Amino acid sequence: MGRDLTCLWRSSSALGVGELTRFRIKFNLAKFLSHPTTTVKPFPLTVEVKNSTPLIYRGALLTGPYNISACVIPTRDLLTRNIYACLQLKPVLACGEIWRATLDLPKEGVGDWTADIFSEVLFSPNKVEYEISVLAELPEGDYNLRSDNDATSDYENTVSYTPAIEYVVWKTEDIFGLPDLSSRKIGDDVHLVVLTHGLNGSALDKKYLKERLDEKYNQQTGTRVVPYVADVNHASTWDGVEVCARRIADKLLQIAGWPWNENIQDRTDKEEISTKPYISKISLIGHSLGGLINVCLAGYLNSLTNGEFYRSIQAVNFITVATPWLGSTEQPWYIKAGMQAGAVGQTGKDLLAVQRTRSEQVQARGAAEENTLEEEPLLLALAHPSSPSHQALAKFQHRTVYANIVNDVSVSFRTASLYF
């Protein structure tokens, strides 16, 4: 009698920019063999991940790319951070492609694995579709599985054909979501750590750092460290450094519970405005372009609240990693020509230190120099000692710059380390 791949469990969904889905899948061999007609072990167990986006989208890079990545690891190794664990990884799964990984069942007959599926979409709000299944080689007719009508579904678009499989699903908001800071008791110490991605990046770039911060400080008594992965600039990092910073600033003011914004004088509900922030400390960590965005961000937080933000909230760490502090002027001429022509939007012009028009300068007010009318580049305007950003940076207790000495083509050591 032949053995065929049989689906024991299946789930499908779609992911956009910066989104992921995490599955924890458990298989109990004793439950599977408990049925009288089941006599053969389901060996081997296989997890199958398919990019179910139509093939026609495979070449649509500027509206995608419509790729996903996937990995599977035993949950025990993930929780204990076993450096010798065998992580099975598929870094790129294009439209229509299928990837399979074998799940080794322990001797005790209870398997527990964690599977992550990540979106690789960068340039648009479109979504990439996927399907994940657990398969087993079984002889035909020698097992007991539920029919499609009887299959259980505890989660959207997810079905289990056997009671031997249990699962838990975490979506993007479950992993990156913030706790309710408004319920903070008076006197509680909450340290908000803002993680900002770079050009054409997403919140997924900061997933590892976010999880390590949670792991290190989750059980700590005293100060409560809350990482916030900025996600308001997905597919929009070409809009300009100051525009990206303003989006994050507006979000942070909302998170911190501050009522102050550009329309505060027009509000009539001032008696309902909270006089206490939801956080007591703040740190900014930016990678690549995210470092420059954070410079503008610090200035906006300063100017939008007339300095009240830093008078009530302690600024602790300002950290940049491979950030082009001096711009990207060391690129080859043909790359600079494209950036100057707008190939990377206003952000490319900002990185090339292109002089801004009067309207562009007015748009940046609040982070850069507010009183000058010169058409100077944004990076130069940010460097003025009288600019809100420059004044805000001085309020941070620690200011750290990390730079790659070699092999960083896009952000050289000179610009990342402020080496004049």
Automatic annotation (TrEMBL):
Occurrences of domain DUF676 (ranges): 189-415
Transmembrane domains' residue ranges: none
GO molecular function: monoacylglycerol lipase activity
InterPro entries tied to this protein: AB_hydrolase_fold, DUF676_lipase-like, Lipase-like
PANTHER family: LIPASE ROG1-RELATED, LIPASE ROG1-RELATED-RELATED
Similarity remark: Belongs to the putative lipase ROG1 family.
Identification of the protein by name: 141_t:CDS:1
